[in-house]
Amino acid sequence: MEPTIMTKLRRSMLFVPGANAAMLSNTFIYQPDSIMFDLEDSVALREKDTARMLVFHALQHPMYQEMETVVRVNPLDSEFGIKDLNAVVRGGAKVVRLPKTDNANDVIEMEKVIEQIERECGREVGSTRMLAAIESAQGINNAVEIAFSSRRLIGIALGAEDYVRDLRTQRSAEGIELLFARCSILQAARAAGIMAFDTVYSDANNEEGFLREAEHIKQLGFDGKSLINPRQIDLLHNVFAPTQKEVDHAIAVIEAAEEAAEKGLGVVSLNGKMVDGPIIERARWTLQRAESGIKH
To answer: Among candidates 234, 236, 241, which has minimal Cα distance to 211?
Structure first.
């Protein structure tokens, strides 16, 4: 079954600094689920205009047009926000990532600007999707209203560095300081029927720590994670991949459900155990993930 905008795999979203021409020219070779060009934190003030131009042209590259392109723009109330939106919407970015989203109005205001640009440039209205990054205590408190604020939203994401500073603490190896924020974002996303994405793991050389955090957020229920290093892509994809045992069980569940439907049975059973709707749905989800690989 062809994935829809809300069922597409988004395990990995790889940040690419917008001012780094070398990375922009070839990052598609790493094949993350989504490429995330950054015009905000990774770009110095003096390089903002150059980065915007580079990203606009990168969006035209045939290889990037075959991928899901996300662009993190500068806040709308900054001197760069409107310019960024004009460039990336006209350039064809599939998703705009809003930084520092504190409330629903932040999403609504940016959506209005995006729609105006779509109309001006002849792009289909509504075709530019949005991803809201929550990076403050206020944003976490408003996670539910943010998640429900726009039909353009594919999901909400945690931005941990600003968030822990807001809490007056710092990040730890265990991540206990992020547990409430992660659960709040996940609950809000699921209530709204959208996706939830975790923050970056900034120590690119600590593979063990990255895997521990990836396993943790997968167990919580997150759909994916923002990344800063291409080496993290395969590691993350393997964490999210089902085992062969899980795939075999999912196939058996689907076959049992199909057999019961053919016989007109109201109850599905497998090995003497009743199989209900959520189990069947989880089996389909497992098989969808298996199309991208089995855990090794």
So the answer is: 236
Regarding whether 155 and 273 lie in a shared domain, the answer is: no
pLDDT tens digits, 152-199: 999 999 999 999 999 999 999 999 999 999 999 999 999 999 999 999
Residue 264's pLDDT band, with cuts at 50, 70 and 90, is confident
Same domain, 180 and 47: yes
Does any domain span residue 2? no
For residue 214, what are its two tokens? 């990836």
232-269 as b/e, with b when 16 or more CB fall inside 10 Å?
Answer: bbeebbebbbbeeebbebbeebbebbeebeeeeeeebe
In this structure, are 184 and 272 located in the same domain? no
Please work out, in degrees rounded to the nearest 5, the angle formed at the alpha carbon of residue 215 by the alpha carbons of 211 and 218.
135
- The sign of the torsion formed by the CA atoms of 36, 37, 40, 44 equals positive
User: Residue 226 pairs with which residues in a beta bridge?
Assistant: 13
pLDDT band at residue 1, thresholds of 50, 70 and 90? very low
Residue 6 lies in a domain: no
Backbone dihedral angles phi then psi of residue 61, each to the nearest 5 degrees: -65, 130
Q: Are residues 153 and 111 in the same domain?
A: yes
At residue 251's C-alpha, the angle toward residues 247 and 254, to 5°, is: 135
Whether 4 is covered by a domain: the verdict is: no
Q: What distance in Å separates the CA atoms of residue 252 and residue 79, rounded to the nearest whole number?
A: 56
Same domain, residue pair 33 and 55: yes
How many domains, the chain?
2
241, 214 Cβ separation under 8 angstroms:
no
At residue 167, φ and ψ (nearest 5 deg) are: -80, -10
